[in-house]
Each structure stands twice: as C-alpha cells, then as structure tokens.
Input
Amino acid sequence: MAHNDVSFLFDLDGTLVDSVYQHVLAWQEALHAADIELSVWRIHRRIGMSGGLFTEMLLREVAVEITPTLLETLQKQHAEAYGRLVKWVRPLPGAASLLEYLTRAQIPWAIATSGRMATAKYNLELLGVDPAQAAVITRDEVRRAKPDPDLFLAAAARLKTDIAAAVIVGDSIWDMLAARRARGLGVGVLSGGYGQDELERSGAIRVYEDPADLLRHIDEIGGRT
Amino acid sequence: MAHNDVSFLFDLDGTLVDSVYQHVLAWQEALHAADIELSVWRIHRRIGMSGGLFTEMLLREVAVEITPTLLETLQKQHAEAYGRLVKWVRPLPGAASLLEYLTRAQIPWAIATSGRMATAKYNLELLGVDPAQAAVITRDEVRRAKPDPDLFLAAAARLKTDIAAAVIVGDSIWDMLAARRARGLGVGVLSGGYGQDELERSGAIRVYEDPADLLRHIDEIGGRT
Output
C-alpha cells in the first residue's frame, strides 16, 4: 500500500453523471404508485443514501408501515420509471476528461456508488467506463451503503491505497458523511443540486461546481502530476 | 392603507405547489429540443426567475446566441413538456390550510408568481384558489418579474396594504432578493429544494420546511389572530 499517495474515489449519480433529478422523479412515481404522497424536495434530500435506508427514512416521514413487499414494489417501480427517464441523462461536463486526466497522471481512481450494478451500468456506459477494467464498487458488494463508509473503504482497498490520503468526491451530504466516517478527504460538487454550505457543514474540505470545475482546480486537492 | 398591519404575499411554484422539479425537467427537455445541453442543477438554480431573464441567464452560460425565435421556441417547448408532467404536481402539505387560516383570521393574502396565467391557472386550481376572487398577480401584469420587486409591490397594492409590513413567502433566492428590493419581510420555505443557508443569506428572516411547517409557527412571523 502506497501511504500518503493520493487517490480519487468518486460517487456516480450527481457527481459524474447528471441523473439526480431523473432519480428524484422516478422515486416520486414509484411512491405515487404505492399511494404514498411525499413532497419532491424531501425525496431529493435523501437521494444518494442506500436504497433500503432511503425508503425507510422516507416512509418514516409519512408513517406508512414498511413491509418487505412494499420495499420491493417501490424498488421495482423506481427502476421502471428511471428506465423511461434515463434517455435524458448525460455525463456531467468534464466527467470523462477528469477520469482521463487521472489515468494519464497515474493517479488511482475508483467509482463507489450506492446504486446496484443493474442501474449503474447505464451510467457507466454513458461515461465510457468499463467495470471489467476500472475499479467500480456498487451496493451489491458491501454490507452497508452511504452514509456508512463501507463503499469508500472497499474502493480504497480495491485500489490498494491509503483511505486517509484519498480524495472522496460526491454531490450529497451522505457522501461527505461517509467520507468522514471512512477518514478520507471529502470534496463536494454542486451538480447534484445541494447547496455549498450543506456540503461544507457535512465535512467537505472544498466544493466545486462540477467535474469540469474540479479538473480546473485539481492542483488544490493533490491531483498534480 | 392599513399601516403596520401584516399581510402575506406568496410565491406559487415551490412555495404553495410542489411543481419545481417538473418545471426543471420540462426546461431540460425544451433545451434539449433546441440542441442546448445544460446540467440540470443549473436549471434548478434559475427557476423562479422571470421566464425571459431565466432563459437569458441560462443561454449566457452555454454561449448560445439568444434570438427572439429561440426564446419563443423554448417557452413553447417548456409549456408542452410541463403539460405532460403536470399530472404529478400536487399542492404542498399545508398550503390550502394556510390560506384558509389567513382568510379566517382576516389577514390579507395574495399570490405573486413569475409565471404567466396560462400555466399558473392549473396550479391555482389544484390549490382551490379562484383568481377571480383571490388576489393573484402574474407575470402578465407587471413589467419585470423576480428578482425585480414589481410582482410583490403590485400584490401589496392590490391588497391595499403596506409592503413594509408584508411577509413575503418564497422558496427561491429570487423571491428573497425581490422581497428585499420591495422592502418587505422575506420568509423562506425549503419545499423548492434550495438550502436553508442560501435563503438566509439572500435575506430570509426565517425559514420553514413547507406551508404546513410555516402554519405551525405562524405566530413567529405576525400571523396571530
């Protein structure tokens, strides 16, 4: 393990791919289908958590009984609705260039997402990332997703790098909380629609607009060649 | 004019009606149709501005030439896409109760929206507000929409109340900026998906979750009977 050598661990939705708002409306559709009315901003605030935790927190707000059947129905309806909305999803500006830059600079990087490979594969394809080649950790591979640190710890282990020197890039406060719990360095991006202040308060040492803006300032966070 | 008597002036989208995310994706569709790719969070950040200002600010970010034809096409495409998504739009929790409370308490209230009556009428219907009975000011009636103060000034004039004692409730920083420029008292709600800090920094004297939360705390901002 290379101590003190920087590595980059990325969240996927809202950080490399512009998919947060489609996920939000897909969850709204799924909840509607189950006769659960919940304001859309509350769904947005929870996006990026593990699917199970996400639905449990949402359902607690509306005092609906959480059964395994309901959770399964919601996950299925969400996947179906997202499948219809995914045609509007694009890589975020600079996402592909940022990954290419790191590869060229021989700085190890990985993607760690709370989503499952079944949905993440579409986003990875958009980015031109082959999960057979690149280090990609999904919800399927860890016991607990964000805000637990497992995904980022698994990503650092896969890269054989020191988590304490890892720059953990994410768009949501769940990424920043998971980064702190993993003892890595949280860096926020605004491209998921959260405010700069929320990201800073949950531990981001720096906040950029999107991957393009992060790449322009990469020397600030240890990404020099 | 009743000096020092409180009145309530409300924004509509994101403040009384849960329509912000549908507007955001409708704008994305409209921009796509015009071959303009813009990250969704940037659209979200501009929602609530006047339509003209909104498109001009967006187009400035992508360096596209702004022609009257392009603006008209975008407005038309947005209205068409929003028309398809509006079936998912609901009143925000507590919105109808809040307006009923104010009516019963004989506290004058008005709605002031940057949208035009052509689209606002659907949202007013959802809320059970008849624009022939209630004080509703739309973009059609003023020279400049938010963040200019015209809409709120016109609403206070319609109610024959003092703008300096008016509580101006909105979900976006454009509402808060317009409230300050109108010399009213800005109060934020989180239901449009913006952060509490942004609303406070743009002048909100208080921030609540949504209309239901505001109604629970209405004594804090002068709404006592």
